Amino acid sequence: MTHLKLPRFCSCLVILGTLIAFSTCWGKHPETGSAENVRRLIRADAKEMTLEVGGASFVLVRIPAGEFDLGSPRPDVMAQRHEMPAQHIRLTKPFYLGATEVSQLQYREVMGEHLNSFRGDELPVEGLRFAEALEFCDTLTRESGIEVTLPTEAQWEYACRAGTTTRYYSGEEVADLAAVSWFKDNSEDTTHKCGLKAPNRWGLHDMLGNVWEPCLDRLPSYDTVAQTDPVGEMRPVTGMMRGGCWSDTAENCRAATRMLAHDLAGGMGVRIVINVEDYETR
Asked: pTM to 2 decimals?
């Protein structure tokens, strides 16, 4: 039998093609937003990063360590008893917080369909129970390879205020709130596209209004709160929610406003956090 010999250059092409096919299947370079790239960005103290899962991209902003006054300063006619007395708090670790609330498209890419009162890919997901917000974070963690969770109450208020001491991070008056928030006076009884309103000083949108945002913990009475990195009680079905929503008055959309988040209540959206300390030695 006569064996057909390929010219040397043809043999090289065949080998090269095989290697390319192998590398395409098994040796893909990390994409932007991959777990490996996110870890690199965290270690490099990147000001902003993107976490990608499926067809969804989550932009997170680096929040520096620092100090702030937790709660409502006196006197304030809008203040509630469980927001006082204000306490000076120190957070020793930076963290990354979602630049916007999670949209319906982002939620669907991770969890599948969810029944929202208002429909639209770019609208915030809403109507979540506290346990569903935790489940979303757990699923996002598994799918991305990055530890994702909810912010603590202290992290949330610190990031919301972004160095300010006023009722709203935009000022003291209701007109100041309207510039950065969707609430009862301007929402027209609906949620709005994530990120439309002006952000705070740290680049965070909709921290006040649009949808309530759950926090991982529930701080005790403020006169007993630890003054360094405080974390309250954590339960699988109960935390606190912050920020107010599209149907709330200005009183409920202050930086200090806090309300019990329970599975029986529902009605929340979600904003994610990645803690830098989880990756400092990785």
From this structure: 0.87
